[in-house]
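ARCHIVE CARD
SHELF: 3
SLOT: left
DATA:
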Amino acid sequence: MAVCLALFKKLIVISGSPGTGKTTTIAKILALLIEMKPNPTPSIFLAAPTGKAAIRIKEAIRKVKEALPCPEEVKKVIPDEAYTIHRLLGVTRNLTSFRYHEGNPLPADLVVVDEASMLDLPLFAKFVAALPKKVRLVLLGDKDQLTSVQPGAVLGDICGGENIDIFSASLVHKIATVTALPMGIEVSSKALALNDCLVELKRNYRFDKESGIAQVARAVREGNAELVLSLLVEGNFSDIRWIKGETFIPYLRSKIREGYGAYLNAARRGEIEKVFELFDSFRVLCALRRSIWGVEWLNRIIEGILKEEGLITSRGTWYEGKPLLITRNDYRTGLFNGDVGIVLAHPNGEGMRAFFREPKGSIRHFFLPHLPPYEVAYAMTVHKSQGSEFDRVLIVLPEEDNPLLTRELIYTALTRAKVGVGIWARDNLKELYFAAGKTEIGIKRQTLEVVDFL
């Protein structure tokens, strides 16, 4: 259905959890639109809110397009590069405005934005204002994930509750004239113009529906707290487990050694590409920054464990393999909030540098004193993990209920993992139970007004 929408709509919004085929779907849409209008070659841009998300969409598209049943000439037009929203719009030298705006629109025929749930309303408004009237815009994401920490819940507001996957009779009739009528389409007399732009991908190709991660994530998404507790307490899954309070520190030590050992060994050998790959195999995710089980506390504990295990040696602040997470946009260096770097010895023997992988695939390095504000990144908040995926994650919840501990946060944390999840919560997992509610941002009307300009 999503591919069919591309034939008729300038705005297409595709929501789906990780593993539902969003990347494959967008690659098919791009191939279809390129084949429909090969001359002149359309100007297509891939973008995402963060550098990490931009790298992921670029790498995913590059893999998927090779398997598409279309001519090589079409595959060559599908872009291999991706940009952050800030870089796509082009920050000016005075750092207060963008190169592309309403008076100087982006020269694009088609723009794809991945991880749209991370978009905040102010940036989204500037982005939409910079698009030309002819453009076709595709938003990809997961409507059930955490929203931006800034004002606005762009994807959630657009998809809006029951508004997704219902279509007008006129749209269904148009689709039927050019293709076989898709199965399972819900036609509604109440469908508005925006409804005809929305589609949700529901079949998951990554997880078997009976896997532990899939079942717990589904129960969290649906707000079924009792089922979440039941699934975890029974402990009948190989890919997800609850770690009881008294066993946490021994478990943490073994997981830190297992999760970061190969990465730190590669860092000492100076294997730059391998280091970035290995670092993404495991991560500790927290709900909070400042608490006894928050990011700052856990990063100190983890560094202590790694020193005791002999995996890092440090006489001062810096050591080979120290992971960094940028916490503030810095337009002078081109580093942005959420970018992940790793401290390594320079190959030419010029001392320590912080290395960052760019969305285009290149590696840049910086003198350590020139870095914008950062924090250690063995453990990170769930908010900061958005746009990333890891083989395994360890989710650490606070001891007491907290307003930040929401259904969206737990769901987002669970769906960062591709292979395995450990969840630590004290006592009887009451923190998970209280996380069943959903936080409303309360500015949906403004979001829909921005979309109305498209």
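SLOT: right
DATA:
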Amino acid sequence: MNKIPTPPLAGKRALVTGAARGIGAAIALKLAEDGADVAITYEKSARKADALVAEMRGMGRKAIAIQADAASQEAARAAVERNAAELGGLDILINNAGVLFAGDFSSQPLDEIDLQLNVNVRGVFLITQAALKHIPNGGRIISTGSNAGLAVPFAGIAVYAATKSALESFTRGLARELVRGTLPSILSGLAQSTPT
């Protein structure tokens, strides 16, 4: 009699920010395929978030969608607390929410600059800080980075590149503080998407 292998993330609980579509949705699906129960956050794409949750539940996983402003401290805390309450804890945090406005920095509107800083940097700080109260030793915090944070590949993304560079430094600094596991920053190329 062949024994069915246990999925590698069976029993783990994950939270993926900005995951109603694009890279975040793909990450959430892979976590569920590998056995994790998954909560996702989204800002605007409720139908896509609900469809993703239904797909993960169809795999036999617990899954929830949480509407959250990625730059809000209150929303970050609420998302983490809901994740922990409904899924029974938190083992894996994937910081995926991000925004990019391309354009000449000399004329870039302040609201576009602020939103990139608030979502791509401040938002990661806020949700990571909230999650650290729940993630046990051996848990994981993973942030989606960008090649733009290492070597700006083209003009028009100065602010975005700065935010991703800050994320790289934050990830390295946090890894020195924690003993609860590795904190890699995943480098990704550009992916066309709209805010979740």
